[in-house]
Structure formats: C-alpha cells, structure tokens
Write a structure and sequence with these properties.
By secondary structure, the protein is α/β, with parallel strands linked by helices. The protein has nine helices and eleven strands.
Length: about 300
C-alpha cells in the first residue's frame, strides 16, 4: 500500500441498547438525611446503567413514604405495571431493604417479576437473576431480610435503652388518662379526667371490684379514655397499676429487659404514693390464685364480691 494512500477510519459499532432498565429507589422519610441518601442511590445506579452498552435507562421510580406496613408505594406499583406491560426488561435497585419493607413483600414482588421474565438485580448484595438460581436467590433473600429485621430490632432496642438511661426518651411523657400535654410536650394534670382517676382508686380501696368500678362509672355516665360509654375491665386494671399517677415513671419494666429505668417526680401526681401502694397490696390480697407447697396452682374457694360490706 502506498504511503500516500488515504486511510478511512470506520468507527466501531456499539451494540444497540436493547434492554430497557428501570431503577427503583426508596426512602422511608423526607428528612434531609434520607433525601441525600435518595440522591446518592439514583446517581450511583444511573452510573451503573450507563456503563452497560446494551442497557437503556427507561425510567426511575422513586418512593418517599412511611416504612409502616400498609403504607402506599405508588411508584413501586407503577414499576410493576410497566413490567407487566413489557416496558421494562431489567429492574435494578440498591439493595433488598430498598426493594421491599419485609421479606414477604420482597418475595411476592420478586416472584411476580420472575414470572414476567423481568431480570432483577440487587446491586449491593451482588444478586442477579441472570446468573443466580431462582430458588437459591429466594433463600438468600429470605436469609438477608431476616438478618436485617433482627439487626433493625436490635438497633431499636438499643436506642430505646439509651434514651431511657439518658432521660431523653419521649416515653417518659407518654400521655395517659388523667393527663394532657402542655406546649412543650410535658405532662400536666387534666382537671376534667384526673378526678375520675381519683374516683377509681377510691372505689377500689372502698371495696369495689374492677367489674364493680366499671358498672359504677357507666352508671355515672363517665366516658372511657376512648370516649365510649362502655369501660373495659383491662383499662381499669392497668390504671390501678400505673405508677405514673404518683409522679414516677418506669421504663423497660416489661419484656426480657434486665434493666429498668425510674424517673422520679417525672410529672405532677394525681394519686399519692401511699394510696397507690395500698391499692397494690389490696390487689394482691384479692387475687384468687395462690401456690401451694407443691407449687401446684390452686384457686381460693372464696371470690371477692363487688358489693360493699355494711
């Protein structure tokens, strides 16, 4: 070939972008931190799609919603509709927790997409239906989702303990019957309902049973904490055991916690400590279940009557 020959360069042919990709991103709140996370998700996954020669970014589906079960995920529903209409061939998302709120929801959506022949990629876990056996992928999803749920539960418990120990937990000022919140969110006495709390304690120490108190309240047309004419026995029993009425609040007193937190003089008292303790003693005395020497549970032959003795 002559040195003077003209050389024509033919540019390489890039493969046609045939696979339509849908990016799905989700955050549970619209806080600044979560919105920054959302931006990072979209930016990263867009770069991932752009590096694949045959992939064409078709749409981005974004949900900013509550993580509570039952909350609406309109964009996720739209994604599934587009997949069903053959508008999307590949779905890519950051990780399993962004795809669904629990393992049941993840698996349900995953199985629907699998039936439609849509490829699903969980980028962070490096899971791809194109190169992973579907049954194995289901098992992996279940395991990872379960592990994440357990980790989330542990974090919630740790956070609750920390806030309880530091005195910053909002549970200390959780409202109950007889109280209301002031502008700062602190408990103050509700004059209208606190007198009913005093009445309940007085009736109990005066000889009334829980059922007797229920009947007396309904007779006096005093509405329940939920505004109903009928009172629940459980409501009365819980009220009689709630030390918050003395001004003290205990947290972590139920469940498997080995530590309890007591905030003394947390709120104004409706009931004196002496009256509260007297009620606890009386409740123990009235119990109709006792343990014998053989540890076999027996029932007392006599039952407490709701009628007062003259």
């Amino acid at each position: 070939m002559s040195d003077n020959a003209v050389v024509h360069y033919i540019p390489a042919r890039f493969p046609k972008r045939e696979k339509r990709v849908g990016i799905y991103c989700r955050v549970s709140t619209n806080s600044m931190e979560q919105l920054q996370s959302l931006t990072a998700q979209i930016s990263h996954l867009t770069r991932v799609v752009s590096t694949m020669p045959q992939w064409l970014l078709s749409d981005v589906y974004i949900d900013i919603a509550s993580s509570k079960t039952g909350s609406s995920r309109k964009e996720f529903s739209r994604l599934l509709e587009d997949c069903n209409s053959k508008k999307i061939d590949i779905v890519i998302t950051k990780n399993i927790s962004r795809f669904g709120r629990d393992s049941v929801e993840v698996l349900d959506a995953f199985n629907n997409l699998k039936a439609l022949g849509v490829r699903v990629i969980f980028e962070q876990e490096d899971l791809d239906t194109a190169n992973t056996d579907c049954n194995l992928m289901v098992s992996i999803i279940e395991s990872l989702a379960q592990a994440e749920n357990e980790s989330r539960s542990d974090n919630i418990r740790m956070g609750t303990k920390y806030r309880a120990s530091s005195g910053t937990s909002k549970l200390y000022d959780r409202k109950c019957y007889g109280y209301k919140h002031n502008e700062e969110g602190k408990l103050i006495i509700d004059d209208e309902t606190s007198k009913n709390v005093k009445l309940i304690f007085e009736l109990y120490l005066g000889g009334q049973s829980v059922l007797g108190i229920v009947k007396e309240l309904e007779k006096r047309k005093i509405l329940s904490p939920t505004g109903k004419e009928k009172w629940c026995k459980r409501t009365i029993d819980v009220m009689l055991s709630n030390e918050k009425y003395t001004g003290d609040v205990k947290l972590m007193k139920s469940g498997n916690s080995d530590v309890q937190y007591l905030s003394e003089d947390n709120n104004p008292a409706i009931i004196s400590k002496e009256v509260f303790e007297a009620v606890q003693v009386e409740k123990g005395r009235r119990s109709n279940v006792v343990k014998g020497e053989s540890e076999i549970v027996k029932r007392k032959s006599e039952k407490f009557s709701s009628k007062r003795k003259n």
